[in-house]
Every structure is written in C-alpha cells, then in structure tokens.
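Our preliminary data section would be incomplete without showing what the modeling component actually yields. Below, a chain of 123 amino acids is followed by its predicted structure, encoded as tokens that our downstream tools consume directly.
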Amino acid sequence: MIPNTERNKVRQRIHTRIRRKVRGTLERPRLNIYRSVNHIYAQVIDDLDGKTLVSASSTEGGKAKGGKVSGGNVASAKEIGKRIAQRAQEKGIKKVVFDRGGYLYHGRIKALADAAREAGLEF
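Predicted structure:
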C-alpha cells in the first residue's frame, strides 16, 4: 500500500503535467477541482490575471442530517458541480477548460463534472 504522502506527490506530478497544457483565459477560464477526504472544492480561474472568478465548496453552508458537514461523497460533488455552474453563468461564463487536478476522472470528480455540464457549463 502506498503511503498518502507518496500518493499526493504522484498526484501533484500528474497535475503539473496537465497544467503545462491547460491554460485558463478570460474567454475560457479553467475549472479547477481539489478533493480532500472530507470535502471537495471547485474554482473557475483566469490564469492570465491569476484571479479566481468563481468558487464553490462543500464546506460552505448546509449541514447533513447528523449535524456534520458531509462533503466526501458523490451526492455533495454533484451539488457543488451545479453550484459552480450556476455561479459561473451568473458571471457570464459559459465555456471553461476542465482541470481534474491530477485525480482520476472517476467518482466524485466525474460526478462534479457531469453535474456542471448538466447545469449548462460547456467543456
């Protein structure tokens, strides 16, 4: 079994390789995903100016039934995907470049991307 520190180094190396090719502009900003064990975060970033245009995460508002914030599941990833797409469209952003952050396109990452597409974001 690979220790988490080694796994994160591998992910960061993959993310660096992806970032060499993926650039966000004002016309087509980058949708970046960060996934932790308990939460998921999404940002729409203009790389030319180095500014975050829109963000959404599972840490903001809304608590689960047990009183705890639940962000480490597919259902919350879908909710974040819908929320980021809605906020992006309010700012006039319709097209983005998807940056999966070095994670496999599977599970929570795929759920967030599919929900964002269904909500009207194009990538």
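The longest strand covers residues 40-46. The mean pLDDT is 91. Preliminary results of this kind motivate Aim 1 of the renewal.
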